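Summary for the steering committee. The consortium agreed at its last meeting that each partner would contribute one worked example illustrating the joint modelling workflow. Our contribution is presented below. We chose a case with several input lines so that the handling of multiple components could be demonstrated. No manual editing was applied between input and output; the record is shown as generated.
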Amino acid sequence: MKNYLEMSKHERRKALEEQQKLYEQQKAAGLNLDMSRGKPDATQLNLSMDMLQQNPYDLIYTRKGTDVRNYGELAGVDEAKELFAELLGLKMENIIMGGQSSLALMYDTVIKAFVLGVYGGSKPWGQQGKVKFLCPVPGYDRHFLITQEFGIEMISIPMKKKGPDMDLVRQYVESDPLVKGIWCVPKYSNPTGITFSNDTVEAFAALKPAADDFRIFWDNAYFVHGFRDKDDQLMNIFEACEKYGSEDMVYEFMSTSKVTFSGAGVAVLAASKHNIDFLTRQMSIQTLGYDKINQLRHVKYFKNVAGLKKHMQKQANYLRPKFDVVLAGLERGLKGTGIGKWSNPNGGYFISYDGLPGTAKRCIDLCAMAGVKMTPAGATFPYGIDPEDKNIRIAPSFPSTPELYQSMNIFCICQKIAALEKLLEEKDNE
Amino acid sequence: MKNYLEMSKHERRKALEEQQKLYEQQKAAGLNLDMSRGKPDATQLNLSMDMLQQNPYDLIYTRKGTDVRNYGELAGVDEAKELFAELLGLKMENIIMGGQSSLALMYDTVIKAFVLGVYGGSKPWGQQGKVKFLCPVPGYDRHFLITQEFGIEMISIPMKKKGPDMDLVRQYVESDPLVKGIWCVPKYSNPTGITFSNDTVEAFAALKPAADDFRIFWDNAYFVHGFRDKDDQLMNIFEACEKYGSEDMVYEFMSTSKVTFSGAGVAVLAASKHNIDFLTRQMSIQTLGYDKINQLRHVKYFKNVAGLKKHMQKQANYLRPKFDVVLAGLERGLKGTGIGKWSNPNGGYFISYDGLPGTAKRCIDLCAMAGVKMTPAGATFPYGIDPEDKNIRIAPSFPSTPELYQSMNIFCICQKIAALEKLLEEKDNE
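What follows is the complete predicted structure of the assembly.
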């Protein structure tokens, strides 16, 4: 394909006309496709149905004899804590089992920090004026919505190839005591798909925060979600912290929302012993514990870490072709045009697409009018504002393969229209 | 039995010696019994095991076709909302389905009111100085722990035969804008077992709070938990509120912790449409929804309100004898002594015992030394302090019948010792 950046005004006009014609054809087809969220489809969910087929009478007692149907075991059943601890390279004592949502655990941790404070902090965050969070961008929209909800000032930090710009992170964290946290998806990051390098993880561990109550929100959502032969390796941040004695600075989160069921999995909070003791004390006021039958159901199904990884292999085999359809669609539609670049991750749930500046919103509107729902433009940035209006998050997991094929055809047409309109407009301005 | 209050000093000394002898015998038996919490035993939990025996492939789709295994349906699946709405005499739109714990829902509602405010309120509670809650006493210890956690000042309100002292409630609520809430267990109250009369419910509905953000926390934990032929009737507070246009003032809570599984049930928040819309918006930042498989599992098992009530009949038949063993033990051990009185509720999970002032703590310590764990003295009051040191919450649900029999023998001995010690001490002071 010809590079759009090198076209003459005339060529661009002609190309735009062509794409508009194709667009009208697609629009007439009256599609209704959703690529907006990273959620599994029904077939993928079926891969975990055996978990629900277990005999319920095998799911009553923990190994130490606790009846999971009853109250008790506030921080979760031992075998669940042990399984997820092993997976994360930690000890059982570093784990609190949550409900079905790690997002809810993060929200809960933030709101409690606001009202009740965190371990080692002299005052609750809410009593310190306008506190701030660092937000690597593009990032996960729901993280940003939480900080926005509490009126926390969000500071964008550019994502580089090996993780957030750590010089900038260090500068903010070490100089400003109002910087209380940073959102991270360290492996197969949402949406960029990158995995933080060892240097990046080390740089996090080495931070010397100006605040006595700064926390890294390490949302390890895709820690076992590689789908290629080559799985990215993420350094264990707690191991890195040992050298610096900084392990109290980290809250790690994960869940089985994309391991078993998005609507009925189990979530995990991992932290230092100090933090776990502090948070468990807070939790003792809040509840008598999360759903323990579901915890035991998960553990008895996986059996061990190897079992969980084997289970994830099924998911990988199912997801990989969906990513490949999208990647092929982007190649087919846009290769050589020079108007966009996109990630090719080894795992996770997203492909991050960067178009020409000033085209993302227009492209997504065009897609919507042609029946393809994408994540809203700007969603990957704090306050929903992408300053360059160029990043689009593509979520291949939910639509079927034929739908993905059609969606990508439409997406590429919309990209071309948006890019050509923008280029022609600029040309006019010249 | 002779009335201890009418005994001579000599008779009391003799009686004390006798009881001390009996106590030493019991102590030597080396028992280890727990009457401290209102939780079901394994046999009672077994009554709900059929719910877990359902074919998981019947628990995938809601009637409108939503896959409950996936994200979505933030406020819960329609059929669950409908079932619990009908049970509470409300509409589906008045319901949010929570996780497994209504306590967690209450905590969550309080902490959000603190940071984010409530519908119609001009400011979050946390920005208004030292706010206050009214606490009918004796009451539920975990309610008081939540308000204590957030530094909310707790004001005790005496419980009368028909509910809290509503003159006092009205006086506080209508004069002090810092009074933001009141804790209520309106049916088979924890621990008194009383059910609020129609007049009491009407008086709640008629309140004209000085605050624009006052809420009644209506913890209807035992709404279908009658175990006698005669079931107490609780007026629907939302119906009462209609007359006064005051329905925005009420948050109602319930759960199936004592219907199915204490560790793995479903919880419900019921409120006005205004409140539900407001809370659902807040919730949309927090999570993508609670465990919907478990919601559908509950609904498909109960089928309808009649099915749920039929299920509760099994629980009633199982619990009733446990209460009767305790009541018989109290009669056998204490009738005519004049040193205590106790409730005889038609439902719920507790018997409330009032001994002579200044004896509760001593009695519970004696029980503990003889191997019978009771709810700590004072637990039924804010800050854990019973100003008269006389109320003891007896929870008959967990121990077996033989254990209850033994426990009550010991309890009565300990009551007698504590009372005689107190009476002799007073005599000495005279």
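The two ends of chain A are 25 Å apart (CA to CA). Chain A touches chain B through 53 residues (CB under 8 Å).
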